[in-house]
Design a protein that fits this description.
Length: 460
Amino acid sequence: MRSTKPLRCTAFEELMLAQDSPQYPCVIVYRLHLRGRIVHSRFEEAVAQMIERHPLFRSRLRTRFGRSTWDIQPTPECQVEWVSSQVDSTWIEDSYMDVRKEIGLRISVQERGDGAVLVVQVHHAIVDGLGIFNAIHDLWLFYDALSRGVAPSLPTVDAEALPTRNRFSLTWRKLLEIIPRQMIGVAGVRQFVTRRPEPLVPHSLFWGERTSPLPVEVLTHRFESEVSDSLRSSAKKQKLNLNDLLAASIFTGCAQFRAARSEQSDADWLRMMVPVSMRSTKADQQQTACNIVSSVFLDRTPGQIRDRDYLVDSIHQEMELIKTNRLALMFNFSLWVRKLVLFRNRPPQPPSKCQASMVFTNLGKVYARSPLRDAEQRIVSGGLVIENVEAVAPLTPYMCAAFTAIQYAKQLSLSLRYDPRVINRDAAESLLEGIVTDVFVQAGYDSPTSTTAAVATGAV
């Protein structure tokens, strides 16, 4: 897509921009652990080719007459930052990026003796989780091709289709067919508006110019392959999805965390925000990196969470109802209706209450069909082996924890991003350990072993 014609922002992109602020950057962050020597010039060329292939990675925000558009730059602007630093739980000291002044993509490589750590930051107004994962895979395809001196073999994409990215492949006929089913979600909308979810830890908002930035602090637990297999087997026997069990464990761990701090009553609502991919057709799959996503919300009280059978079954039934009736469209429709009222030329404003207690996203089996996989299902590109993959979502006001599940190289991992201004490291470790312990219980283990129960720092 070489044209520099402005591209109108979608309602979802407007929401991401409205939620963005220096105190709460709306930025997705990825970290990949690499083994092997990375060739600087070759990697930088692969990055340039990836950005050329995905136009929103080289765009800036423009606002005129109350309308926001993406101004696509004709050439890539991203410069790879090469740094030497110790790998720990702090991925980034400050991830805020002003997409009015710069493109919404940053890439840094932390080199060390036996490999490197690649950190990719991307503004959520540009792309969703699956979109950036696909783009990073293109990066490795480019790097491998450059290493071997051959033309890259890439999946088909259609950059000219970007203007249709917010239509979710809906024709007028399909829209009329699903409208009656959308009425099922009206009760959920009413509950969303009337209920007041509680943050995991009561705290005051961080707002104002003198507020300290929000570092990207992450803890990750990687389950051994036999534990992952047992969890999937348990879900299958109960006719559930892996996502149902993980969501139940996160609810359980968060409720126990709040109860241990004496910050919970049975009348409290905990709200889990769950992103839902809306890529349902071949045309959606062929879009370049962008947002084709919605969100649904699960509300539970401590009493409902303590009832394990009810908790798991209710999560499964609610998610199946949402899937069957495509109720995730309700969220996007509400954004479209409110767009003119809320998102026109308004600077970021602090919310008056908590909108969600936590976010949980499951990115599934990443790179499971990649031609670059080795016998261990790891990506191997130009002599580089991608050992581990991690990703975390943005944090928003009053939401101080975000959970991400990824299945890569036959291993399931669960990452916790926490707000260190609210939750200290010891507390974050306790929170994640409680969730991991519950996952082991759901997988059929009495308790985790001392080896597998340890909370990882993120270092390999």
